[in-house]
Design brief:
Length: 308
Amino acid sequence: MKSIRVLRFAGLTLCAAALFSVRAAAQQEASPSGLSPQSIQMPLDSPLEAPPVRSPEEVDAVLAGAASRPEVLPPIKMVLVAGKKDHGPGEHDYPAWQERWSRLLGAAENVTVDTAWDFPDGQQLATADVLVFFQKGTWNDRRQASMDAYFGRGGGAVYIHWAVNGDRRAADFARRIGLASQAGNIGYRHGPLSLQLHNTEHPIMRNLQDLQDMPRLELYDESYWRLTGDADKVTLFASSLEEGRPRPQIWAYQVSKGRVFVSIPGHYSWTFDDPLFRTLLLRGIAWTADQPVDRFNELVRPGARMSR
């Protein structure tokens, strides 16, 4: 069995009274009904040792300060878009993610989750509030016209990891999502990512800067750089130092009437069960739907890789 170490951040300090208050609030959060950890955990089948788990205190601290939930939540329609798995065990597992996260997101109140293979159909594009893409991305005239119409009516979109690939149309794709990759022309690295955090006043980033002495988030995943597009036009949330320069890894973008959230991390399956990454991704999904970022807080802990 693979050994798992508990990750502790020396810079995280909470007084006992404040920590008790955070935990009490967490215990009062609604638990999604019928959601078992095994049904939403990603397969942990990588030949590599899994990264350290998070502590409950870290998760409590990041979720602290959430606004009260309204009595009636507006409905959200989501479409999770996956594709054929194209890497080894524990990597780029688009089908497993689509299955697990359909259950996870579908357990949220007043949320409808649909799935699509490769690209949403016309009905999904016409009715969805949020499209979440986790697949090997591509871009062509049909997709461009469809997404331009979708963004034009105010639809939101989330792109995870290799979903940012635009092949030879990377420049066109980048104008819709901020930055995009052209296969064969980018830099990439697998391993520890020490993500420098930016725009920490943005609701998506609340409390994350307090995890350590420096505003960083440590992951074990894959970074991309030498992307196509104008980095000055995105709202940057996280960067990593690659080839001696900070490179964007997580960002938001406004296009037409729509919102876009992009995360380059997501290569390894275990990243989706990291409760801090999951918090970021769930906040990004909520933000693209023009909803309060804490809308999905109840989905952060179930099945997450946390110590007891």
